[in-house]
Amino acid sequence: MSSLSAKYAPSGLAADLADPELLCQAAHVAGQLVASDTGEDIPVTDPATGETIGFIPALAPEQSRAAIDAAQQAFLPWSSLLPQERSAILRRWYDLIMDAREDLARIMVAEQGKPISEARGEIAYAASFVEFFAEEAKRPNIESVTSHLPDAEVEIWREPAGVAALITPWNFPSAMITRKAAAALAAGCTCLVHPSSETPFSATALAILAARAGIPAGAFNVVTGKAATIVEPWTSDTRVRVLSFTGSTEIGKLLYRQSADTVKRLVMELGGHAPFIVFSDADLDQAVEEAIKAKFATSGQDCLGANRFLIDRRIYQAFCDRFVEATAALSIGPGITDPDIGPLMNEKAVAKQVSHVEDAIAKGAKCLIGGKVDGQGPLFFQPTVLADVPANALIMAEETFGPVAALSPFDSEEEAIARANATEYGLIAYLHTMDPRRIYRASRQLQFGMVAVNRTKVTGAPIPFGGFKQSGMGREGARLGMEEFTEVKYVCRDWA
Ligand code: NAP
C-alpha cells in the first residue's frame, strides 16, 4: 500500500470546516490512510459550480484485495467482542457523527449539491441507523424452539456472516453507508465500503470518525476508485460473504450475476418508479403539499421520488392548478444557499430530464411549468410539471431521477391500481384518500415494498426499507436489516 502523500492532505473546502481533518482525500484500509499504488486520482467536483473540490485515489485491484485481507483479519476479533462492547463503540460513532453534523453536511453539499437543510437532515438520518443498530446489537440472537424430538434441546442462532461488501450511490452519500455498515458491524461483520466516486468525501469522513470511535483497524474500510476495478475482486473472492448494494437496477443485476460463482448473500436496494395516487375524496391541500415533497426532495434524485402522478379525473384540473402553483414557488440555487432545489449530480442526469420532457411532449403531453435547464448553470434543471402524459411516454416507464413530474388522470380505482402496478419497479407507492376501506384495499393490492398513505415521509431506522420485484431483495433498517448480515445456525443437543 502507498503511504499518504501531501497531495492527499485536507485542502480547500477544509478551511471552512470546524474540524479540517474531516475532509480526507484518501482511502481507509486496515486503519491506514491510503493513496493509489498507481498514482491515479479521480477529481471530485462541486455540481453547483463545476469546480474541483479535491481528489480521491483510484486504488488498484491489488489494493482492493488487500482490503479484503484487512477485513478478514479484523473479523474474528470484532465478532468475538461482547455485543455490549460493539454496541458501546457504535454508540460513540453515533455521538461523533452528531457532533460533526455541520461539517459533514458542508462536505456533502460541496460534493453532492443538495440543499444544506437536506444535508443536515441526512446526517441525522445517517446517524440514526448507527444509534438504532448500537441498541439492536444487544438484543438476543438466539431463539429457543419447542423441541420436536424427545430429550433434545433445539436452538436457532444468528451468527455474523463474515466480511461484507457495501456499495453505495451518490444521492445519499452518508445514510446509504450507515444503513448498511451499522447493521453489519452490529451483527459482528467487518466491512468493505465502495462509495460512489462522485461523493467519496462523506464516506472518508465517516471512516475518520469510525476510527476515533474505536472501530478497530480493518473493520470499516473505505476503498475508493473506479467501481468495476474495486468491486470485481470482491465479487470473485469467497471470503466476502455478503454483498449489499444500493444503486441502479442495471448495476444491481450485473453484481447479482458477478456474485453467482461465489454464492454470496445479497441485499439489493435498487431503483424506484413510485406512483402517487390521489383519489377524489383526498384532502387536496394535503395531497399537493405531500406531492411537492415526494417529487422535489433531493432535487428529485431520490429512489423514493414520485414519478407517476395518477389523479382521479374529477379533481384532476384542480390538482394540476394547485400543484403548478406550489411548484412555481420553489427556489433553485446552489445547495449552500439552502434553496428548495439544488443542482443535479451530473450531465447524464440533466440529459435524462431533457429526454423525458421532450419525449413526453412529442407524444402529446403539455408542459405546465419548467421544462428547461435553468440559467443558474448547466446542472440546474427547472422544477417541471407535465400534464396529460400518455402511457407510452418514457417517463411513465423509467425512473426520471430528477425534478420532472408526470401527471395523468384515471377514471376508476381498478384502473389506478392496475396502472400503478404495471411496472417492474416496486419500491414505494403513495396513496391519498380518506376512505378507510379503500386505504385497506389499495394497500393490499399495491405491489410495493412500502405504501405511504396520506403522507410522504415514512422512512427511519426502525422500518424495513426495500422493494418488491426489480426494486431489490432483502431489507435495510429494522431488525431485518441486521439479520441480512447473519447466517442461521440450527443446533440440536441431546439432553438425556
Ligand atoms: P449506480 O450507477 O448503479 O451506482 C451505484 C454504485 O455502484 C456506485 O458506488 C457506483 O460507483 C457503483 N458501480 C457503478 N458501476 C459499477 C460496476 N460496474 N461494478 C460495481 N459497482 C459499480 O447508481 P447511482 O447513479 O449512483 O444511483 C442512483 C440509483 O440508485 C437510482 O436508480 C436510485 O433509485 C438508486 N437508489 C436506490 C435506493 C434504495 O434504497 N432502493 C437508494 C438510493 C438510490 P461509481 O459511482 O464510483 O461509479
Kindly summarize this structure in a few lines.
The protein has 496 residues and is α/β, with parallel strands linked by helices. It has 14 helices and 22 strands.
What is the CATH top level name of the largest domain? Alpha Beta
Bound molecules: NADP nicotinamide-adenine-dinucleotide phosphate
Q: Structural class of the helix and strand makeup? A: alpha/beta
Shape-level CATH architecture of the largest domain = 3-Layer(aba) Sandwich
The backbone outline, from C-alpha atoms, is: globular
Kindly report the CATH topology of the largest domain.
Answer: Aldehyde Dehydrogenase, Chain A, domain 1
Count of distinct strands? 22
* Percent strand: 15-25%
| Average pLDDT metric | 96
Major β-sheet profile: 7 strands, mixed
Helix content: 25-40%
According to CATH, the homologous superfamily of the largest domain is: Aldehyde Dehydrogenase, Chain A, domain 1
* Low-pLDDT stretches: none
For the record, the count of structural domains works out to 2
Please give the alpha-carbon distance between the first and last residues: 56 Å
Question: Which features would summarize this protein structure in a list?
Answer:
496 residues, alpha/beta, Aldehyde Dehydrogenase, Chain A, domain 1, 6-stranded mixed sheet, binds NADP nicotinamide-adenine-dinucleotide phosphate
